Model the fold of this input.
Amino acid sequence: MISNSIDARSSSTLAGSHRNTRLMIDKALPQLDLAHQSEVMGLSARPLSARRLSIDIAGLHRCLVDFVRCSYLGLDNHPEIIEGAIEAIKDHRALHWSCARTRMSFASLTLLESDLADLFQARVITYSSVLAANMGALPLLASGHLTAGNKPVLVFDRFAHATLAFHKATLAAETTVVTIDHNDISMLEQICKQNPVAAYICDGVYSMGGAAPVDGLLSLQQKYGLFLYIDDAHGISLFGRQGDGFVRSQIAGDLGERTIIAASLGKGFGASGGLLMLGSQQQEKLFRRFAIAHAFSASLNLAAVGAARASARLHRTAELLRRQISLQERIKGFDRLIKTDQQGSPLPIRTIRIGNEASAISAARALVDRGFFTSAIFFPTVPEGQAGLRLCLTAGHTPEEIEGLCNALHDIVPLCEGH
Done:
């Protein structure tokens, strides 16, 4: 999430009111320097089995249990997915085609998008990353081409991910952009009442914990025609019979013309890249011709395509459900031992508030010394004074690894009280 001081009363379209890169760097640089000096960021590692890593720290090889990566189902080193990547390269005798997709795409990529469309029951376009997907989609939303020619007021959740929030200044050159408090349904409804067309831009599952109130958003959509653009990068694969994700699994039937879901192929899905789920043929046509990352950039490379196709096949097997169940067991095991703001949530992200930035970095380093690699989080990832630790729980962790982490947290962070 990105800290942002703009509120719903600020409807200025001046670029400077939506971005202050110099101030952000000035405030964040000291903490980033400390984190790198403490060797809790910027590390080089080799994956070992399951959730273990080999990392060089202070000139020594260390084996750490990784709670940083977002492969929530533990699929990023699944042998079938790795083999899918290798076979795709061998089959095509290439890795990458350096041409815009409006000219030509790999045949395998066309098959992948068809696989994903069937899996998620939506029209699907893939991208090299979720950032690229968002970069292409949001200007088209701002233009009014997705809302019957009427430019919508773009309403950002204050904690919308950086890959969404970064585009505010560009979008403000096209239409009105405002930011409201996190999950503030009441304020969003006021904006819907006051404007003929509004679009809400948010995460499905937030990278620092918590989720969008999907039921409330769908209610506003039904009542006012609210357009929803939801980035469910952290929710994909974790929910739904075929892993359609936190958001899509809560929407019955077609997406319709007023909902777009962005998602990652590189987190729970276990491959690489990003995608958009669209609700109509007209939207797909528009995006394939005018979305900047589609019309003027290259596609996923073949290794990513092959890995994603293998994962899509796996998503249709009983193994997906087994891994989803295993993930829930690991989450419950953690919650029995450690209290967090996300207690009882079925989502796999847990954050531990510490407050002081230097203390959070020190805690992350102390955990490294105990054999656990976690993320120290501080501004601009979270608001100033709310630094802490982020833990990504996965189906690939063993119960013993979860218990070991919790024991270390009890020793290192006094606020982590058990039940």
